[in-house]
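Workshop exercise sheet. Pairs work together: one partner reads the sequence aloud, the other fills in the structure field after running the prediction. Swap roles for the next sheet.
Pair: D.N. / O.F.
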Amino acid sequence: MKNVFELAENCLHNSTMDELLKGTHDAWQLLKTGQLSFISESTVLPISRVSFPNKPNLLPPKDMPKRKFGSPEGIAAFFHAIAHVEFIAIYLAWDILYRFRNLPDAFYQDWLCIADEEAQHFELIQRHLKSFGLNYGDLPAHNGLWDHATDTADNLLARLAMVPRCMEARGLDVTPSIIDKFQHHGDDASVKLLTRILTDEVGHVERGSYWFKYVCSKQNAEPEAKYRELIQQYYLGGMPKGPFNREMRIIAGFSNAELDWLENGNR
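Structure field:
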């Protein structure tokens, strides 16, 4: 019987890219075959110990090269950026599983499932990048998404608010229009890939919403008020920018009151 927290520690601290992907898929198979333990006995290492591959070169967002989306180079850069988001998302799923203990087994099962799906997304994009003559790491990337993990390393509610319910939820807002652009240009391969990712991401955000409300209930916090408080505390720049995809966000566990607040904050 393998222990999920030991596997998480190995993936977060000791893995190459290939080892991370294999370790994630192997852990998911262990869960499906009932060979995974959720007993927490090990010490949680600080988030500063998380180790990433040497490539891509990480730049501040303001220093990222500007490429036009309509050019072949721009489209290749777009998919490289998506590959980076999905790769970091594997770490994010493993880290929330590893860092926050004494929760129901279902919490760890959900985030392991999400880690496996993010790994699948990354592998699909890796194959797609090869059609542009690129591999992940050939272009620079920025690490803004992981910054939200380090900022919330000691606060589970803040992590759930900022990662699945803010940064990942942004994908629900912007991806449908991007899919439409590829559809217009007859790029069926890109449409299929992005549609698969979008479908899964709705489920990931929904799990974030579910566990956010669960933890709020355990802490006697009102979820909508707590969400507003945490976004205002942790979101740099004031408020997330719209427009917001109300239909998908409702499916993913947002309330109309939360969406009204987000929209009003951008007026």
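Discussion prompt: Strands lie at 2-3, 36-37. What would you look at next?
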